[in-house]
TrEMBL record:
Keyword Zinc among UniProt keywords: yes
Residues that bind a divalent metal cation: H34, D36, H67, D176
Family assignment from sequence similarity: Belongs to the ribulose-phosphate 3-epimerase family.
Native organism: Hibiscus trionum
Cofactor: Mn(2+); a divalent metal cation; Fe(2+); Zn(2+)
Residues the entry annotates as binding substrate: S9, H67, G147, F148, G149, G150, G178, G198, S199
Residue positions of the active site: D36, D176
Chemical reaction(s) catalysed: D-ribulose 5-phosphate = D-xylulose 5-phosphate
One GO term of the biological process aspect: pentose-phosphate shunt
UniProt enzyme class: isomerase
Protein name according to UniProt: Ribulose-phosphate 3-epimerase
Length: 220
C-alpha cells in the first residue's frame, strides 16, 4: 500500500529563516519538506537552487522533496545531488527526449526520481516513464499552473489522479497546488498519497492541526 506523506511547501515559508521554518514544520508533523526550484524560464518566477538546499541540509536530516520547475533539469542533477536533495522531480514537458538518461543520472546521484506534469499535459505522457525498466518512483500531478503559491485548486485534475491510481496501485502520487482542509478530501479520494501544501499550512493559526487533518484524510 501507499503511505501518506504530508509535505509543506517551503515556498510559503520565511526564506530568511529557512532552517527554523523547516524545523517548525517537522515539529508540527510534516513527513517531507517540499522545495520548489524555479529558474525564471520554465515558470515566470525565480526561487532557490542547490546552494540553498546545501545550506538547509546542514540543519536537517529530513527528506527534501525537490520539485524542479526548470527548462534544463539535467544541469541540476549533479549540484542537487551534492547539495543533499532526496527526491528530484522534473517536468515531463521539458524531458521528452532525454528522460531515460535523466532518470539514470538522478538515481546514480542517490536521489529518488519523480516526474511532474502541468495542468494542460495529458496523463498518458507520463506512462512510459513509469513503465520503463528504470522507472520514476513518483508522479506529481500539478493542481495549479506551476510558478506561484496561493492559487486555486483545479478539481478537474483529479481525473488524472484517478487514472494513475487505477493503473498503478502502489505508486507514490503527489498533488501540488491549492491543497488544504477544503480540497484534501477530493485529492485523497482520487488516490493521491503525497500532499504538498504551502499557503494553507503556513497561513494557518495552527499548522499542526492542518497537517494532521490532511494525514487523516489520506489515511481513511
Ligand atoms: C507552485 C509550487 C507549489 C506551491 C504550492 O508552483 O509547485 O509547491 O508552493 O503552494 P500552495 O499550497 O499555496 O498552492
Ligand atoms: Zn511544488
Amino acid at each position: 500500500g501507499v503511505t501518506p506523506k504530508i509535505a509543506p511547501s517551503m515556498l510559503s515559508s520565511d526564506f530568511s529563516n529557512l532552517a527554523s521554518e523547516a524545523k517548525r514544520m517537522l515539529d508540527f508533523g510534516a513527513d517531507w519538506l517540499h522545495m520548489d526550484i524555479m529558474d525564471g524560464h520554465f515558470v515566470p518566477n525565480l526561487t532557490i537552487g542547490a546552494p540553498v538546499i546545501e545550506s538547509l541540509r546542514k540543519h536537517t536530516k529530513a527528506y527534501l522533496d525537490c520539485h524542479l520547475m526548470v527548462t534544463n533539469p539535467v544541469d541540476y542533477v549533479e549540484p542537487m545531488g551534492k547539495a543533499g536533495a532526496s527526491g528530484f522531480t522534473f517536468h515531463v514537458e521539458v524531458s521528452k527526449d532525454n528522460w531515460q538518461e535523466l532518470i539514470g543520472r538522478i538515481k546514480s546521484k542517490g536521489m529518488r526520481p519523480g516526474v511532474a506534469l502541468k495542468p494542460g499535459t495529458p496523463i498518458e505522457e507520463v506512462y512510459p516513464l513509469i513503465d520503463s525498466e528504470n522507472p520514476v518512483e513518483m508522479v506529481l500531478v500539478m493542481t495549479v499552473e506551476p510558478g506561484f503559491g496561493g492559487q486555486k485548486f483545479m478539481p478537474e485534475m483529479m481525473d488524472k489522479v484517478r487514472a494513475l491510481r487505477k493503473k498503478y496501485p502502489s505508486l507514490d502520487i503527489e498533488v501540488d497546488g491549492g491543497l488544504g482542509p477544503s480540497t484534501i478530501d477530493m485529492a485523497a479520494s482520487a488516490g493521491a498519497n503525497c500532499i504538498v501544501a504551502g499557503s494553507s499550512v503556513f497561513g494557518a493559526p495552527e499548522p499542526a492541526a492542518v497537517i494532521s487533518l490532511m494525514r487523516k484524510s489520506v489515511s481513511e
